[in-house]
Amino acid sequence: MLFHYHLWTPFVEETERFYQQLGFQVTQRIGKYAGEFTSFDPPLDWDDFREQQILFRIIEMKRGAINLTFGYGKKVMFDHIGFLVTEAERLQVLGRAEGLGLTIQANERRTFIGTPFGFRIELQTHPDAVESETGDRLLQLGITTPTPSLEPLLSQLLARPVTEITTSVSERMHARHVVFSGIPALPVQDPNGLEVRTVSPLALIDGRIED
């Protein structure tokens, strides 16, 4: 199940506020302050630390079965997507990744697979990565890449059609749009230029979003 994406952004506070307005809750804030990584988790809010020159490494927000993270970057950059899998599925995907010659980084919490398209794929086995696996879902993420063939690679890795990822070719790699399930709403753009749309789960037909 696609559940996650991560961005680097110079608009950290604005991004948090935008997704809060869409019903996401902040679950973690970690930033570098006075040379050390420090937690600024809720109930702290921006009024408590805005003036402290914190370099945020990660802010995590959740809603239903959706998890998104972002951290400070000098420019907007798309870093990775994440799939929630079982341990057996993780091992199977890793075997396919090794066969394709892809780079693998793993620790006790997360596994990352490098791709030739400029972003990584996270495999997550811990159910606490989301609020609820039966809640609102990340239905679709649109990614542009300088070269085609991303969709076939994803299908090879996961051994299924990965219809929740749509691709197009552009001069640079970036996330173009995202679709969540929930109360239908008109598309809006987040502070990083990502078009965000919310649709009824019934709009998901054969893995594709029906306009």
Description:
- It is globular, with a radius of gyration of 17 Å.
- The longest helix is centred in the middle third of the chain and has 13 residues.
- The chain has four helices and 16 strands.
- The model has no long low-confidence stretch (mean pLDDT 92).
- By secondary structure, the protein is of the alpha+beta class.
- The chain has one domain: Roll (2,3-Dihydroxybiphenyl 1,2-Dioxygenase, domain 1).
- The strands form three sheets. Strands 3-2-4-5-1-6-9-8-7 form a nine-stranded mixed β-sheet, covered by helices on one side.
- Helix content is 17%, strand content 44%.
Task: Give a brief outline of the structure.
This is VOC domain-containing protein. With 211 residues, this protein is α+β, with helices and mostly antiparallel strands.
CATH superfamily descriptor: 2,3-Dihydroxybiphenyl 1,2-Dioxygenase, domain 1
Spans where pLDDT lies below 50 across 5 or more residues: none
How much is the radius of gyration in Å? 17 Å
> Gap between N and C termini, in Å?
22 Å
H/I helix tally: 4
Total domain modules: 1
User: Strand arrangement, largest sheet?
Assistant: 3-2-4-5-1-6-9-8-7
Structural shape: globular
* Classification by helices and strands: alpha+beta
Q: How would you spell out the order of helices and strands? A: EHEEHEEEHEEEEHEEEEEE
Provide the CATH topology. 2,3-Dihydroxybiphenyl 1,2-Dioxygenase, domain 1
Mean pLDDT: 92
Total beta strand runs: 16
CATH class identity: Alpha Beta
Most strands sheet: 9 strands, mixed
Helix content: 10-25%
Strand content: 35-45%
What's the architecture in CATH terms? Roll
